[in-house]
Specification:
mainly alpha; 0% strand; elongated
Length: 146
């Protein structure tokens, strides 16, 4: 699901407003996948099936009482170990990257509403929202007009 988003964001004609909408949709989908045990179960079953074709048995790292140099993930079974040590941290990393790279700066994308093709989407509430974001960048003489 991330590949089409990546292609969309890298397109020459990519619109920041649409990019944020697409990113939010992808974020919601992967958040639902992360929280859905059926997704993990299917992925794990597929990995076990593939491993069996090359004669590899599922296993986990040994756990020690005091671990200093690597993660010591508590788990009652091999599938839970892999879920907690790889699957969940990976999804959490993706969420953090989306937050850091896109959502953290989303208020700056509001200036796109002043492009002529987006003016039809500009409402009074949106104008107020844009003003609040950019009020420190607007000269005092222009701010008086607002």
């Amino acid at each position: 699901i991330l590949a089409p988003l990546s292609e969309f964001l890298q397109a020459k004609d990519s619109d920041l407003i649409e990019a944020m909408k697409e990113t939010k949709a992808v974020y919601t989908v992967i958040q639902n996948e992360r929280n859905d045990d059926l997704v993990w179960d299917a992925l794990y079953a597929s990995a076990v099936e593939y491993a069996a074709t090359i004669d590899v048995e599922p296993s986990s790292s040994r756990c020690a009482n005091r671990q200093e140099h690597r993660a010591n993930v508590p788990a009652n079974s091999i599938d839970i170990y892999w879920k907690r040590s790889v699957f969940l941290p990976f999804y959490d990393h993706v969420f953090q990257e989306l937050d850091d790279r896109l959502f953290g700066f989303s208020d700056r994308f509001l200036a796109q509403y002043f492009i002529s093709s987006n003016l039809s989407q500009l409402s009074d509430n949106r104008i107020t929202e844009v003003y609040e974001v950019f009020k420190d960048d607007i000269p005092v003489s222009a701010a008086v007009l607002m």
